[in-house]
User: Fold these one by one.
Assistant:
Number 1:
Amino acid sequence: MKAFAVALQRLAPQPDDLFLEIGCGGGYFLRMIQPMVAKAAAIDHSPEMVELARQSNQEAVAAGRAEILQGDAERLPWPDNSFTCTANTAMWFFLPRPGNVLAELYRVLKPGGRLVIATIRRSWLNRIVWAPYGLRLYTNQQMEEMLSQCGFREIRVSAPGFMGQIAMARKPSGQA
Ligand SMILES: C[S@@+](CC[C@H](N)C(=O)[O-])C[C@H]1O[C@@H](n2cnc3c(N)ncnc32)[C@H](O)[C@@H]1O
């Protein structure tokens, strides 16, 4: 899947990374990234998706290299400064309060931690195509502002292809 490849490339996972995914669905992105990092965690609010994600990451979960929990991305069940990087794919447009989720991601990221969001960009075409589904889409500028307001820095938002939008940002190094 192209969004996975782009998100992976932008995140550039390292062997000592502690990775978090929100809205992991069936856990297929987690399965790709998990062997590349020291430890991986994921959360989804759907119990069915959590079950599927645990099945598709069975070995890593059994070995304690992956943790998959059920819950809302607005209330992450991990302490402050738990992760070195986080990514999410094809879920940002579902969030009614993305600022709350960004605040949580900021909280659980260590100083210098990286964030990648792979979603659908707001454009006249995407509004026509996706409006019936009620998806929340943002222009690149809106996405940049949202990230900046939540304290993220080194923000880069680009729009690969017709639909895609990929946002990268970092929690400042000096911030606990
Ligand atoms: C379209 S699926 C994408 C799954 C996966 N990220 C992928 O790209 O294949 C969106 C997922 O986000 C989850 N989700 C949506 N809002 C959420 C929230 N507030 N907290 C946790 N999970 C959420 C849904 O349950 C669903 O599994």
Note: The domain at 2-170 is CATH 3.40.50.150 (Rossmann fold).
Number 2:
Amino acid sequence: MATQELVGRVASAVANPGLHQAVARSVDRHSYAALAALTPEVREIYKARARAARLRSVRHMAELAAQFIAQAESHGIIVHTADDAAEAVRIVAEIAKSHGVRRIVKSKSMATEEVELNAHLGAEGMSVLETDLGEYIVQLAGQKPSHIVAPCLHMTRDEIAALFSREAGRQIATDTPSLTAFARERLREEFRLADLGISGGNFLVASEGALVMVTNEGNGRMCTTLPKVHVALVGIEKLVRDFADLADAVRILPVASTGQLITSYVSIIRRPAQSGEEGPQEVHIVLMDSGRSEILGSRYEEVLACIRCGACLDICPVYRQTGGHAYGSVYSGPIGAVLTPLLRAEPSAQALPFLSSLCGACTDVCPVGIHLHEHLVALRARAVARGVAFPAESGAFRGLRRAWTPARRYRLTRRLMRGALRLGGGARQLRAWTAGRSLPRVAARPVADRLRAEGLIDEER
Ligand code: SF4
């Protein structure tokens, strides 16, 4: 049932050519810019350093968390720990209620999306306004972000202008200055009126007790400086050891994400405002576990090194056809298909690793070298073992196993297929497949025959 829902979401995304065009246009722009930003040699150096820095932090997460808490509290930041999503939401809601908060401005944060913070605070009677431009657009549209870096990349400029025009009650033009001018006009007053600012965090520096935000829009700074209280909700995997490790991670993040050598803002928050200074009088950081610790020590541990750059989404041939909403998870694309089943137990999450062609492009582009395609294969095996599989596919493989046992039947099929391919491919499906791509030429001698001749596989295969 859960897998049918996933198939239904994918089918409706694939049947939407407007969505496909909007997604493809954006992800191509990101991917080409990321590729052009550095030479391959420099990229490999950056990647090796970032991977080492992130893995070091992941492996010492518990010690770094203790160090971070001690350091942050020594500067006057109030640190809370949340074992799960419910506790994280409860902590944020209690902070807000204790200050009589009614209006909240929020900067982009996937952790807050993960726990559905806005809905919970809304149910407590508080209004939460997203202030990142992309998040503001998807909030107005009543949708969820479809990409971890570019939340509204699935929407066209015309759709956004229509949405803003409806909100404004007048015609807003489709050019970027007009669209951003409208958003700016709407948001500026809200920053001034808000009682609470909520943010996420890209990194937490343990040695300094510092929260680090890497952004391209000024809204992050407005949310964390104008309201009198600031709350940051951050997953514990965002811890890094010190500023040296932070530098290695921060340097590669914008390059992998959008091809920028540096982002517009790197904000480091170490304490609340002191008397006479402008800024929030209280800063709270909620360190959220919510399943992260269970990944530690497992074969999937390196997944926690992810810096949420979005490069694996941009390069993924499945994501570019479907966009992010088809995944039914706040984390989409290859990292979403790996991380979501590790964080959420329900069958619809366990089926996500099947949303991959296993081409390995995600692993190639990952700036911290996470072996995404290997984790996808392992998680598929786990899903099958747990009984979460696509019935038609499982039936097809059972049928093939029966049809090709003993192995000589498989060899006969292979010979027939080679003949058909040499003749140009007889099957209608194959012709349709090759209409948009070229098929490699059939080798003069099958690789299995060559391996057998070398004694590398046995006679029966
Ligand atoms: S898995 Fe790698 S490529 Fe994908 S978002 Fe994380 S860091 Fe970026």
Note: The chain is about 55% helix and 10% strand.
Number 3:
Amino acid sequence: MYRAGQEEIDEVSKVILSKQWFLIGDPSSGHLQEVARFEKEWAAKIGVEHALLLTSGTAGLVCALAACGIGPGDEVIVPAYTWMATATSVLSVGAIPVLAEVDETLGLDPADLERKLSPATRAVIPVHMSGRPANLEGILTITRKHGLKVIEDCCQSDGGSYKGRRTGSWGDAGVFSFNHFKIISAGGEGGCLVTHDRPIYERAMIYHDSGSVFRPSARGLTEPIYVAQQYRANEVMAAIVRVQAERMDGILADLRRHRAALAEAIAGAGGVREAPSNDREGDCGVMLTLQFKEEAAARAFARAPGVQGMVLIDHGKHVYTEWTPLREKRSAHHPDMNPFLFARNKGLRMDYSDKACPRTLEILRRTAYVPVNPDWTEKELKEKQAALRTAAQGL
Ligand SMILES: Cc1ncc(COP(=O)(O)O)c(C=O)c1O
């Protein structure tokens, strides 16, 4: 979250004083309908039919997988570079995540996706990491040929776009995160599932509301009800994220302008380049992503004075080799609920070893992020540009 102020305070105050904090309520008794209003506004902004505000992005991924009917016996392909929740959400519905390499854009590599297909593959989760759009055209060409579901993980790309359309509107479903560290936030946590598909929306609706159908937007539901989880948002979260969503395009414009200015500072330098992009205009601009010939150069650059960069192999649980519970095949609180041990999953691919995706690890070792701030003053931007220029000259 980059920006917040009086507008959030004002809208939250109204909800608090209404004393109607639950997402359902009668407008004639003063209920402000914040969740319903956010869902309508976000669906329109992203360009989809339906949106569901949820407690987190992880909840959104689980709802999307459940809504797509994914379960035991199914493989879901996920990139080897993403926050661990992309893979753990697959285990939450009893299916098995299969790793595929990312390419130099840091998105899922369509060629490796194709290599990793098996008769058990049912779905793919491309991730728009650090706001950088994945190669959706390449991925969708393959998934359409094989009849696979696509759930876009947009948790790091609130408001990003690909070829002129917002990310999240390309797949069968898209999932956003509004936790504290994202472009916009619903008050520290939050998420949203979007889809064009009415049955997916209905099944996700059932899943997020404990298998009940109390919400007015659930009227006319045709999908059968099943027992599920409680991932509902509340009116306070929605009041905050509605204001945040209004700020979003301004934040993105400033992030993109500042990232472009930083890229200019290293343009033409030998030994470093901006990582290739599937859509530079649509990239959210939260990071300047730089690639080097080797790890030592990436490290020297990242720690050069004033750069404050990070080499991606150090990105903690975004790197699959740090996904300890998966590597140790402990994916539930009880062994009988551990999908790695299910009879239906016997014979599915479960390789999370260092050898599973060596190309991803090689790319991450020589790639660095420089975080971008949309609120830098012109002086601060110039200082950052100067630091990058000096670091690039020193390579
Ligand atoms: C790529 C990705 N997927 C999923 C998530 C999960 O989102 P949340 O923290 O809202 O559950 C995150 C959050 O960091 C993420 O970065």
Note: The CA atoms of residues 205 and 315 lie 34 Å apart.
Number 4:
Amino acid sequence: MLLTSCYQLIGEFHYMRVYISCDIEGVAGIAHWDEARKSHQDYAEFRRQMTSEARAACEGALAAGASAITVRDAHGTGRNIIGRELPPPAHLIRGWSGHPYLMIQEIDQSYDAAAFIGFHSSAGAGGNPLSHTISSRMLHAIHLNGEPCSEYRIHAYAAGLVGVPVVFVSGDQTLCAEVSALQANTRTYSTKRGEGASQTSVHPDEAISGIRDGMRMALSGDLSRARLQLPDSFSLELTYKEHTDAYARSFYPGAELLAPHTVRFKSGEYFEVLRALQFLI
Ligand SMILES: [Zn+2]
């Protein structure tokens, strides 16, 4: 059967495929790296919250008529979400394949919509005590075409590459503002607001119901309205914390050392940007 990028209508039934990528630094309540690290005792509580928010997104998708759901565990080891707690139609991707689609690996044009849950503001931004992009250890900031680049932006463009609209994003308030500025038709739900090393969060249960309702509503309208138009060309600038990392990575094909801490890579193909990120971080 030929898959299409919009609803498949058979009789009265909609067959909708939804891809949900989940991170932890934007879930309700999380305020410190100890709470995001598997090896620390503070992690268990937020692993549960991440799982509950992922489940809520699945439930919202099912309420909107989704018949197939892929959940991507996209934090750290990729082994955080407790699979048993997701509703049975959901498939769960754990671990990292090494594919340049990173946090949305295995997405393709067969999906009708994508959603990002528990996402967070970018490296170099405030708005979350855990703000970073891809690597908090190595990178000070990433800019794409002159603008600070979050994990949301990297993967929203990647979804755009296969024509899948990102219809819903949950995470900190600063990220939600970035999402709305880039694509006003993407629905957002803010779990918390960061202030320096602190954050103020909605109640964990309120986040769960907000994500469930937000997801259902985001999937109920015209999904194509949230599709992103990709820029014609890309200039990626990675600013490393250590100049030694910048120097070593400046030898990636097509990359150049722009400043002691900054490597630039330019391409007209977004997949090449994703490939570069895979090797430059
Ligand atoms: Zn993460």
Note: Helices lie at 43-63, 151-161, 173-182, 204-218, 243-249, 270-280.
